[in-house]
Amino acid sequence: MTDQTQDENFVSFGEQGAQLTYGSYLGLETLLDSQHLESDPPAHDELLFITVHQVYELWFQQLLHELTAARDAMLLGADGGRLWWAQHLMARAHVIERVLVQQIDVLETMTPQDFLQFRQRLAPASGFQSVQFRELEFLSGAKDPAYLRRFKGITTAEQERLDARLAEPTLWDAFVTVLATGGLPAGDDAEVSASMRTVAHDRDRYAVVWALGEALLQHDELAASWRARHVVMVERMIGSKSGTGGSSGSAYLRSRLPVRYYPLLWDLRSEL
């Protein structure tokens, strides 16, 4: 290796002559200038409200990154040798989802009176309009094209992302692929249920398949935990008032509590 090549490949850790800084790498100038209050005079807790929801969207972005990769690893099937990677990514997603539930504690330090100081300025914006949250539901398996007709004010790019999520395989589709490539019948729900009973009763042989099924169930449970925790927080904050986007508020949120991404995995418990 020549001296010139060594110089080109040499990385010096330290601040001397640095071209990349902590702030520039993380884009902090832009990030920390992204919280713009609508209240006038400024309501003290509006910054908290904006920050928590922006952090949610950052975590949603990360979850989409991890769960999409986990799905793709499962689509390769057992022959692709990437099922361990899918397990790893699902475990990471579970940790992030627990953080999402815990973040509600931060929002609940805001009293109803504090929230009412700026709530009217939010309309018609609503959490219902979170495109990334809907992407997560579609990717997880809860695809409902009707949501696209109810979205207001989304961009063309956001519409295209939602359309793509509706068209692409879900985590459940990927898991069914894992069953099929592992030699287990998976042509319809009845076959999948029968195969999962086989897996459950022979975990030595199907350890990875069982672990992935449990990972999906954990993902489903944590999503349900977030929905349950969220609706209670909303009721504590605004009672039975309608949502800023025009929804029925907590009544709508409660109607979403029974949602389950993987009913066959839940039914398996009754069949064992």
Condensed summary:
This protein is an all-alpha fold. It has 15 helices and no strands.
Give start-end ranges of low-pLDDT stretches: none
From N to C, what is the helix and strand string?
A: HHHHHHHHHHHHHHH
Average pLDDT, to the nearest integer?
89
Instruction: Outline the biggest β-sheet.
Output: none
- Using the alpha-carbon principal axes, give the shape: globular
Q: Structural class per helix/strand content? A: mainly alpha
Estimated helix fraction: 55-70%
Number of strands: 0
**Cα distance, first to last residue?**
63 Å
What gyration radius follows from the Cα positions, in whole Å? 23 Å
Write the layout of secondary structure elements.
Elements lengths: L2 H7 L12 H5 L1 H4 L14 H30 L1 H4 L2 H25 L4 H5 L14 H10 L5 H5 L5 H12 L3 H11 L7 H13 L5 H32 L11 H6 L7 H9 L1
Helix pairs in contact: 4-6, 4-8, 4-11, 6-13, 8-10, 11-13, 12-15
